[in-house]
Amino acid sequence: MTVVAQLAPLSTRLREGTRAEHSQAESEGFVERLLAGRLDVAAYADLAAQQLAVYAALERASARMRHDDRGRGLVFDELTRVPAIERDLAHLYGPGWRDVVRVLPATERYVARLDAVGGDVACYAAHAYTRYLGDLSGGQVIQRMMQRHYGLTSAGLEFYDFPEIPKAKPFKDLYRERLDALDLDDTETDLAVSEAQEAFRLNRAMFVELGVAHP
């Protein structure tokens, strides 16, 4: 009898397939210095400005995905981040924040990638998985470090608050179930993994440029 090997679920393949890229991104010098308290509030504010550009692009893709029969199950209003980031920037920069924030070239490339591929369900799944599950996991550590080292309170750190998701683990489990139920074919699954790797590389490039700006 021939035994057909079962491929791992998409959520597992995304996690395992991005392990190296994830490690490289989170060990980038800017991130390490920021979390160690060796930078300043201005560095965090600059990061928040880049996050606004990225999440605006991701959530434009979410709006497109609501019309996709397979992808709409990955779109959760509870995950929407843009309004929270805008409130953070208003706190960090003041009411005229839109006139002073800048978007780095690496961030512009990240945004361009999201706009280019965000209508494809496999690519959207890759980028949404990379961003949102990270926010619900390591993002909480970042919030605590910003409070500890830079004196920030909930004002300025709303990006990391998910008031409609009181318990992260059950929600992350649900999200992974939705990923695994997408019914991607082998080619699409491979594309999702490679696009998630690209998402981490784009994120790391953004951190590199932030590190140059905030040595």
What's this model, at a glance?
The chain is an all-alpha fold and 215 residues long. The protein has ten helices and no strands.
Describe this structure in words.
- This protein is an all-alpha fold and 215 residues long.
- The longest helix has 28 residues.
- Helix 4 runs antiparallel to helix 7 and helix 7 packs antiparallel against helix 9.
- The chain is built from ten helices and no strands.
Number of β-strand runs: 0
Q: How would you sum up the global shape?
A: globular
Order of helices and strands: HHHHHHHHHH
Helix residue percentage: 55-70%
- Low-confidence blocks of residues: 1-5
The chain-level structural class is mainly alpha
Counting DSSP H or I runs of 4 or more residues, the number of helices is 10
Name the beta content range.
Answer: under 5%
Largest sheet: none
> What is the end-to-end distance?
62 Å
How confident overall, as mean pLDDT?
Answer: 93
The value of Rg in angstroms is 18 Å
